[in-house]
Specification:
mainly alpha; Serine Threonine Protein Phosphatase 5, Tetratricopeptide repeat; 11 helices; 56% helix
Length: 274
Amino acid sequence: MFQLLKDYANSNNIKLELNGKECINGYYPLLFACKFNNIEMIKLLIDYATEKDIKLELNKKENIGGNFPLLLACDNNNIEIVQFLMDYATNNNIKLLLNEKNNGRWYPLSKACDKNNIEIVKLLINHANKNNIKLELNEKNIHGMYPIIYAGNKNITMVQMLVDYAYENEIILKYEENKIKNYEILAFLKKYISETEKRGKSIRNRKNKISREERNNNKKENIEEKRKEIENQEKLGWLSKTKYSDEIKKLSAGISITATAPPVESVDPNDHHS
């Protein structure tokens, strides 16, 4: 159908409107194609958009449920369409709103976990990492469910992926034990999160140690600079021997020094009095 419309438009020098600003309920061609899982239509739309230098709308929502292409692709469990959308976004410098929600507060990751589609979860994580996006893990949908809860009832590998992602991005995962019915996965989740928190604490301790060492090094550098400043003031005669000795002692003791050069008096060049 679209091919016929495309051929007619080309033969009559008509440029088709692909982003459909006035479509019923806010639907536009790409959104329709994603809703009905029509990958051939999506390919035709992308080819036509590329040919006519049109940038397809990827994030616009319809007016009824607030759905958008990526979320519908996740809902339909269609890995190929998700990949098409991500590739198109990358090739056309479009930022996919990975954490956007519909009216039911579903977002792509929560939907992918609900559908138990580990390949889509991988795609979402990889796309987020490549585009410096931090995935939302702790927002509940309208049913009060986190992504980890859906994963926890279905797929231990997916649970591990989410926990690893949370650990790498310093996210504290939220979950409710009573909503995870798979007790083997629940035990794994509790143990894994506990171990992850220990690793995180160890890393934080190492970071704090490095930070302390950096502060100490900076302090040593500041003291050395201050020592040179005091020595220079003594050479110029701005400090008495006693004052110089006192300042050096304070500096050695790690006490902040506030020695400064004395104000310079203006001199009348015509004044020859000694």
